[in-house]
TrEMBL record:
<dbReference type="Pfam" id="PF00834">
    <property type="entry name" value="Ribul_P_3_epim"/>
</dbReference>
<keyword id="KW-0862">Zinc</keyword>
<keyword id="KW-0119">Carbohydrate metabolism</keyword>
<dbReference type="GO" id="GO:0005737">
    <property type="term" value="C:cytoplasm"/>
</dbReference>
<dbReference type="GO" id="GO:0004750">
    <property type="term" value="F:D-ribulose-phosphate 3-epimerase activity"/>
</dbReference>
<comment type="pathway">
    <text>Carbohydrate degradation.</text>
</comment>
<keyword id="KW-0479">Metal-binding</keyword>
<feature type="binding site">
    <location>
        <position position="33"/>
    </location>
    <ligand>
        <name>a divalent metal cation</name>
    </ligand>
</feature>
<feature type="active site" description="Proton acceptor">
    <location>
        <position position="35"/>
    </location>
</feature>
<dbReference type="GO" id="GO:0006098">
    <property type="term" value="P:pentose-phosphate shunt"/>
</dbReference>
<dbReference type="InterPro" id="IPR011060">
    <property type="entry name" value="RibuloseP-bd_barrel"/>
</dbReference>
<feature type="binding site">
    <location>
        <position position="35"/>
    </location>
    <ligand>
        <name>a divalent metal cation</name>
    </ligand>
</feature>
<feature type="binding site">
    <location>
        <begin position="142"/>
        <end position="145"/>
    </location>
    <ligand>
        <name>substrate</name>
    </ligand>
</feature>
<keyword id="KW-0464">Manganese</keyword>
<feature type="binding site">
    <location>
        <position position="178"/>
    </location>
    <ligand>
        <name>substrate</name>
    </ligand>
</feature>
<dbReference type="GO" id="GO:0046872">
    <property type="term" value="F:metal ion binding"/>
</dbReference>
<feature type="binding site">
    <location>
        <position position="66"/>
    </location>
    <ligand>
        <name>a divalent metal cation</name>
    </ligand>
</feature>
Amino acid sequence: MTVKIAPSILSADIMNLERDVKVAEQAGADLFHIDIMDGHFVPNMSFSPSVVEGMRRVTDKPLDVHLMIDNPDAYIKPIVDAGADTILVHAESTQHIYRSIDLIKSLGVKAGVVVNPGTPLETVKELFPVIDQILVMTVNPGFGGQKFIPGMTKKIQRLDQLRQTAADDDFQIEVDGGINNETIAQCAHAGADIFVAGSYLYGHDDIKDRVDNLKSLAVNAKQ
């Protein structure tokens, strides 16, 4: 039973990023989640391909890059060249999401689609056979530390049901936003596989205990 914890570096100390990456790695992180924001698609700005490149130099863990930007196609190749393992594109950010997914996969990395809390799953259902991941935002995107939106549990559950009913749909379900020791079990029980956690992990001395606790809660919820 696969459960993966992905620390979000949005909540890390940017002045000590290498230290925080190493601490999370030693604590049992399975991959790292990197948010790239342009201040247009979401009302915040963060990181660039150079941060992906820097992280690639200090960790062998997979890098899960989440594009919260307009015109995502322009960033895809630079981010792949920087060392990303997975690139996630918002369905709402482009009129040509299928083209974006195809571009990502043509460059030899995993491709995923992201849906905001208000975006119906039907808008991306045609992509299910060709994606590796689908990220369900459980908060409104743009800022870390927000509260989990309870109604997203049903959305995750419905997505898992759709996945199980189609023989050629083999994507992983990722969740991002408000993931902590109180919300992870319900997301895991609903069918999520990858859990992005930021403020629950970073800024605390017991990060290993927190990673272990999240994994334990998620695995138990899936049984």
